[in-house]
Specification:
Layout (H helix, E strand, L loop, with lengths): L8 H28 L9 H47 L6 H23 L4 H5 L4 H8 L4 H18 L5 H26 L4 H26 L3 H22 L12 H15 L17
Helix pairs in contact: 1-8, 1-9, 2-3, 2-7, 2-8, 2-9, 2-10, 3-6, 3-10, 5-6, 6-7, 8-9
Length: 294
Amino acid sequence: MIVAATPRLGRIVSEVWKPLIILFVWDVIVTVAYFVLPFKAPTLPLPLFGTALALFLGFRDNSAYERWWEGRTLWGAMINASRSLSRATRNFLPDPDAHDLKRTIVLRQIAYVNALRCQLRKQDRDAEVLRFLSHGEAEPALKRVNAANGLLDGTGRRIADAQRKGWIDTIQQTQMEAVLVDIANAQGGMERIKNTPLPNQYRFFPTLFTHLFCILLPIGLVESLGYATPLGSTIAGLMFLAVLQIGDDLVDPFANTVHDVPLSAMCRTIEIDLLQSIGDEAPAPITPDKGVLW
């Protein structure tokens, strides 16, 4: 996620430079043809086209931002639920015999959020899980297609074991299970966003109409701008291409790009809070790198 106060011009240009160069070359061709060849540029209702396209792109960007913000909201809920699980584990299991179980549940939750982060970003999950759990503790979950869900199931079984051993009562078990349900619901929401792209019409038609508008721009502007057509048309096209790119950047909030939800930083927040809750030393928070928080 970009957290710098002002976006870097180089980053903006790097995302749109290819279509921008093609657009500039086309603008030059139209301008040269206008002055060299005997043709009259047709009158085009560019303001009408531009207004309609701007509304279309705005609607698409709003839909993409809603997905991005929902992803951030779900991870906020995950942070809160992780803290609640840790607090309940610490307070409900004061028995010295339950010390190892208490640590296991907390470490499993840290491993769980990191496994979920890797699954959403399509990265290797095993190494991240094994940073917090032994191979024997993690192996049953890592054998499953959805390792994060496997870790959560294992945590639920350990809570049930604590109830059978008399370390917690059924009311406390129900409260802790309710927190696990909140965690599972948040994971389900994230997977829904990740696995359900915007409808094809939302992706295809804005791209088609934006490129078509950029093709028509120099034809409609050449009579009024003359030799300045390549500059004016390219700048106007840049604005529409940038708005089109915004929707592409926000549509998948878990794609591990500079525009996405900072999953690594939020997982580190959970790691810090949970380790400190059981008295362990915690790592430092992740800070922005060149204006980007990962």
